[in-house]
Backbone:
């Protein structure tokens, strides 16, 4: 009898770990494929409907909305002497600002009737500026201010330079009076912050040109309009930065002060404002630079200052003359930037140094005596009142620059013309045909879809609203042409920003050498950038693009560099230990981890480009910028110029929201991937 053997138990096989299945490539890249699909359908639509329903408007043709704006201007003009609001409120503000500017000009820059010279001549002005700079920022800044003012005088633009400082100074003073209380209020109330933030966003998003026409509608042209438009443009930085500085004061310090019985005003005056002082002065610095930038552009509305000679020389295609006047603007910009920056650091230097403060007080007293003597001399002797005529080096420099420009044009005209034609006919014109030569409804749908694919639902809503506003202005075709110019310049800015920014972020030596140059470029008002572009490419749309690239590249480069440098050292060390080479480190680690900074650079680059491309209307840029300028120079086109300003604002808000929401979405994806 056989027995059955008990079968052996077989141990179960452990499950094999399998990698999680990846979705197919088309699902991972559906957004990019959708963008390509929208552009392809748009391109097919161009082939079928080219030239239909483009809403192109002739140069002298006006829509009903633009005619209504002309009528509104006429109504406001007729109400200036009859309506109480325009007569006493708007008129009172305008008359007060005009009176202030005229009296400061009589005091410092222009002949004060019946005197043939100002009340205080150039020697007294330089001495007063030296005293103020020493008291606020120290010895080196006092020397810098003296040299800067004398340089403007020797270049032949003493009166215009002082007028620019007058407009800038009045605007900055009003910004401080309004902005600092608003910043304090925002730092203490979330509701106020929520209410003011969209307004400040809109003020910073609007290109500087867009401020001009609406202000002319209420304040007419002249010094008052120049001051108002300058202070509106320059107000947001000091409000935002002062609110930020007050919020970041140590909570422990605030609580300790409250526990000692400090009241709200005492806490603000004795703790928060002193501890946020440096941050607030940084806001003052940014406000001052914005004011100087806008004060020069305000020449378009008859604002006094250096903007007038730059504008007149640009219109005359005099590169040398515009260069000299632009050089004075750069000198003033560097002077104001360095003085305000040094003022923010002076208190810390004093606290760390063993310098006897009594010596400084004696020095201030001595400089005050010298200033008093200089004022007396400038009021008594003509040679100390009028800047010496024989000291005009500007004419020689203008001739030298014109001769260099003529040589460069002769030598490079073939190359620059060929490059300009290649970009214009090979890139810009085909893209402009896509946006401006297709029916408006097709372009509207395509831009809305692209806004959604890039920025999501919030961007979709913003895009639809902004496109409807543009459609309502009657300038759809001109806006589409301007959009192409903006996008072309923005792409070039981002290429430069990513390449140079990554290089700077990875190289401390390059960053040390290049960052001061970028800082200096950011201090220059936008008018200045038109000069080298005009010298190389004459008047054309391409000239406006080149100026926009030069103007916007520094901010993009710095933001990308800061993003690359902000990548966690632990992440980079892990990538190095895994054997990543340089290219893999950049493409697989640093650039993806810096995506938020790169998108922020795209956002800021777009806004800088838009503001500069519009100004490029002065040198043949066409589009909306040209219409704004035409609205100032031709009375019958005022409504069209004002509508162009509205369209510029809507275009800027749309581009800002799309890139901003795209950056937020990217940051959320990166945060989710790192959890």
Residues:
């Amino acid at each position: 009898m056989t027995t059955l053997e008990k079968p052996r138990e077989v141990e179960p096989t452990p499950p094999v770990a399998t990698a999680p299945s990846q979705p197919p490539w088309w699902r991972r890249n559906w957004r990019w494929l959708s963008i390509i699909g929208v552009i392809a359908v748009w391109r097919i639509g161009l082939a079928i409907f080219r030239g239909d329903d483009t809403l192109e408007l002739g140069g002298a043709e006006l829509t009903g909305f633009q005619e209504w704006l002309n009528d509104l201007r006429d109504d406001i003009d007729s109400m200036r002497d009859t309506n109480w609001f325009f007569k006493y409120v708007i008129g009172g503000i305008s008359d007060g600002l005009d009176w202030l500017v005229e009296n400061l000009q009589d005091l410092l820059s222009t002949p004060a009737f019946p005197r043939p010279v100002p009340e205080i001549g150039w020697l007294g002005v330089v001495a007063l500026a030296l005293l103020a700079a020493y008291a606020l920022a120290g010895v080196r800044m006092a020397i810098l201010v003296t040299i800067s003012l004398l340089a403007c005088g020797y270049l032949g633009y003493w009166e215009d330079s002082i007028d620019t400082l007058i407009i800038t100074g009045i605007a900055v003073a009003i910004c401080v009076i309004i902005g600092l209380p608003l910043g304090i209020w925002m730092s203490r109330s979330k509701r106020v912050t929520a209410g003011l933030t969209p307004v400040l966003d809109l003020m910073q998003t609007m290109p500087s040109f867009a401020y001009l026409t609406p202000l002319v509608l209420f304040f007419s042209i002249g010094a008052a309009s120049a001051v108002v438009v300058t202070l509106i443009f320059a107000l947001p930085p000091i409000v935002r930065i002062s609110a930020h500085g007050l919020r970041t004061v140590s909570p422990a310090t605030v609580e300790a002060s409250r526990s000692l019985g400090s009241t709200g005003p005492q806490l603000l005056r004795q703790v928060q404002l002193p501890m946020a002082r440096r941050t607030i002065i940084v806001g003052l610095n940014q406000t001052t630079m914005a004011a100087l930038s806008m004060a020069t552009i305000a020449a378009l509305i008859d604002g006094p200052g250096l903007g007038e000679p730059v504008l007149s020389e640009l219109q005359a295609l005099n590169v040398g003359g515009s260069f000299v006047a632009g050089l004075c603007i750069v000198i003033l910009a560097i002077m104001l930037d360095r003085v305000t920056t040094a003022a923010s650091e002076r208190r810390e230097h004093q606290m760390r140094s063993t310098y006897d403060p009594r010596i400084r007080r004696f020095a201030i007293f001595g400089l005050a005596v010298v200033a008093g003597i200089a004022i007396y001399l400038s009021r008594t002797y003509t040679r100390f009142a009028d800047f010496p005529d024989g000291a005009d080096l500007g004419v020689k420099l203008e001739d030298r620059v014109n001769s260099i420009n003529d040589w460069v044009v002769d030598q490079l005209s073939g190359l620059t013309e060929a490059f300009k034609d290649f970009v214009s006919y090979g890139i810009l014109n085909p893209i402009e045909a896509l946006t401006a030569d297709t029916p408006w409804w097709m372009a509207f749908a395509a831009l809305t879809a692209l806004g959604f694919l890039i920025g999501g639902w919030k961007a979709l809503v913003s895009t639809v609203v902004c496109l409807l506003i543009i459609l309502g202005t009657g300038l759809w075709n001109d806006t589409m042409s301007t959009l192409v110019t903006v996008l072309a310049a923005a792409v070039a800015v981002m290429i430069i920003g990513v390449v140079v920014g990554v290089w700077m972020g990875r190289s401390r030596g390059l960053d040390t050498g290049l960052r001061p140059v970028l800082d200096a470029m950011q201090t220059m008002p936008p008018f200045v950038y038109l000069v080298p572009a005009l010298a190389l490419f004459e008047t054309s749309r391409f000239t406006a693009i080149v100026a926009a690239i030069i103007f916007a590249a520094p901010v993009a480069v710095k933001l990308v560099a800061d993003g690359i440098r902000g990548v966690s050292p632990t992440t980079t060390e892990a990538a190095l230990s895994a054997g990543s080479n340089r290219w893999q480190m950049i493409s697989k680690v640093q650039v993806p981890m810096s995506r938020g900074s790169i998108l922020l650079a795209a956002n800021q680059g777009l806004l800088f480009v838009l503001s500069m491309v519009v100004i490029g209307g002065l040198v043949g840029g066409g589009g909306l910028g040209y219409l704004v300028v035409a609205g100032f120079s031709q009375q019958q086109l005022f409504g069209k110029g004002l509508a162009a300003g509205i369209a510029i604002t809507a275009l800027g808000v749309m581009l800002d929201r799309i890139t901003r929401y795209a950056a937020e979405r990217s940051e959320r994806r990166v945060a989710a991937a790192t959890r």
User: Anything to note?
Assistant: The chain has a mean pLDDT of 83. Residues 394-436 form the longest helix (43 residues). The two ends are 68 Å apart (CA to CA). The chain is about 80% helix and 0% strand.
